[in-house]
Amino acid sequence: MGNKQNLKVLVVDDEADILELLEYNLQKEGYEVKTANDGRKGVEIARDFQPQLVLLDIMMPNQDGVETCRQLRDLPETANSFIIFLTARSEEYSEVAAFENGADDYITKPIKPRALMSRINAFFRRDVKKKKDNNKISVGSLTIDRTSYTVTIDGKQITLPKKEFELLFFLAQNPNKVFNRDDLLQNIWGSDVYVLARTVDVHVRKVREKVGEGYITTVKGVGYKFDLL
């Protein structure tokens, strides 16, 4: 999958044994790793470290993982980083809150190191594959540039987290074609990541809030499509 020595992972968890376990396994895989034992410290480290991936617990002192994720998405240094939640909480509302604030994946504890490393490697493999296919799509005043992961409307640049960007770009690549939620989950999140179908709805809503209502249309009872205006 390429040289992992250039890939950085930040682990944020208040359990020392989990930090030690993940740091050991990630370094063994060849990743550069930093750790933090609470959310506030994690955000501070992320500014300088600029990780491509963040492993983030939900229940932590001082600042929980959901708020930490929101702040990481607001930082230019981590706006497009992968964020994977690691948590003992399996309630649906926790999972929805995680994805609404920009998570890419959600894994329940106890952690199985080999399975987790395989999933992390898969995230980076898909990212490399996508970057090889550099494209720019322009529709009216909207421009979507995969080369720089930027979106502009009327010349003004707006910021989309990675999964929101990929959803918009995928739909724009296939204009006027309707995709159901399972199609979008498969193409955007991949078969090795388990997320709820309603995660697609959350991401579509957030994209619409940023680029406007007119581009992505809901086809009732079927799914979503990108309309050529």
Automatic annotation (TrEMBL):
A GO BP entry: regulation of DNA-templated transcription
Any one GO MF annotation of this record: transcription cis-regulatory region binding
InterPro entries: CheY-like_superfamily (IPR011006), OmpR/PhoB-type_DNA-bd (IPR001867), Sig_transdc_resp-reg_receiver (IPR001789), WalR-like (IPR039420), WH-like_DNA-bd_sf (IPR036388)
Residues in Response regulatory domain copies: 8-124
Any one Gene Ontology cellular component term annotated for this protein: protein-DNA complex
DNA-binding region in chain numbering: 134-228
Family matches, as SUPFAM superfamilies: CheY-like (SSF52172)
SMART domains (alphabetical): REC, Trans_reg_C
Entry keyword set: DNA-binding, Phosphoprotein, Transcription, Transcription regulation, Two-component regulatory system
Ranges where the OmpR/PhoB-type domain occurs: 134-228
Alphabetized Pfam families for the sequence: Response_reg, Trans_reg_C
Stated role: This protein is a positive regulator for the phosphate regulon. Transcription of this operon is positively regulated by PhoB and PhoR when phosphate is limited.
Protein name: Phosphate regulon transcriptional regulatory protein PhoB
Protein's organism: Marivirga aurantiaca
